Amino acid sequence: MKHKKKNRIPAKYILLIMSVFCLVIIIGSFRNVIPSAQVNTAIGYVIIPMQKGINIVGSALTDLRGSFESREKLQQENQELRKELADARAELNQVQFDEKELSSLKELYEMDTMYSDYDKVAARIIGKDSGNWFSSFLIDKGSRDGITEGMNVIADGGLAGIVTEAGPNYASVRSVIDDTTNISCKDLTNDNLCIVSGSLKSMNESGLINFSDLTDKDNTTSPGNQIVTSNISDLYLGGIPVGYITEVNDDPNHLTKSGKIATIVDFEHMDRVFVILQTKASETENRGE
To answer: Between the CA of residue 248 and those of 29, 115, 132, 202, what are the distances in Å?
Structure first.
């Protein structure tokens, strides 16, 4: 058997009945038709529960409003903290940049003092070939600054490369680690001559470049000896440090030696360089050779 649905009075009718009831009580109390005791009893049963309900709803709405205000305040404080953090990071980055800039300028000053016999111009690197190493790169100074092809470039106190092209406001430099570089050098300890050759493969494998054809009859060439450019080089000024020997091996002919050199210049993190405003050809002419 199916259960009959219970008839329920719609909520709007209940609200209407209660409103009429309240109105009757209010009118009766004013006209003394309904005794005050009965009015109070009616109020106790009807009005007070309604008032409690209204108070509860009002408290809930107040709490909800306070919650929204607190949330908005927290969001505002969060945005302010984010801004302060961003400003602090920007200031820290600026301090680090200034420290790096100061360190770079200090290195330039030291190089300027080290090579005080030469006229030089400082330049910033503005481009390089793809890859990890500065095998060739561009600088922001050119022919307007007195730079010409064949001028030697130094960085970190050592030989970085040679100018291969000079435009009005830029110059191209081939570094000593480039595969096409071959430099006549010598062991500063004993004046033994050798050829230093650039090698990107060797740089990728060990961070070193090669030397070869070193004659060492007295066996005085050993790891730790400094290699500098020799005076007999056609392109490079003499006496510029290139690096330090890390490995020495006897060649199959038992007459010469070869090995590895750690360059003085950090060819992975270059920023500024000095260009010596003199070529080997002009130096030779000045000497009257």
So the answer is: 119, 30, 26, 15
pLDDT digits (tens, 9 = 90+) for 242-254: 999 999 999 999 8
One-letter amino acid identity for 100?
Answer: K
Cα 219 to Cα 65: distance, rounded to the nearest angstrom: 90
Nearest to 179 by CA among 231, 126, 135: 135
DSSP 187-227: ETTT--EEEEE--HHHHHHHS-EEEEEE--TT----TT-EE
Chain Cα centroid distance, residue 7: 76
List the one residue out of 112, 135, 138 whose CA is nearest residue 125. Answer: 138
Per-residue tokens: 249 = 């091996």
DSSP assigned state of 49: H
For the stretch 189-208, pLDDT in tens is 999 999 999 999 999 999 99
Q: Which two tokens stand for residue 18?
A: 């209660």
Residue 117 neighbours by CB distance under 10 Å: 10
CB 155 within 8 A of CB 274: yes
Question: Smallest Cα–Cα separation from 126: which of 108, 116, 140?
Answer: 140
Report field, pTM of the whole predicted structure over 0.70: no
The residue type at 217: K
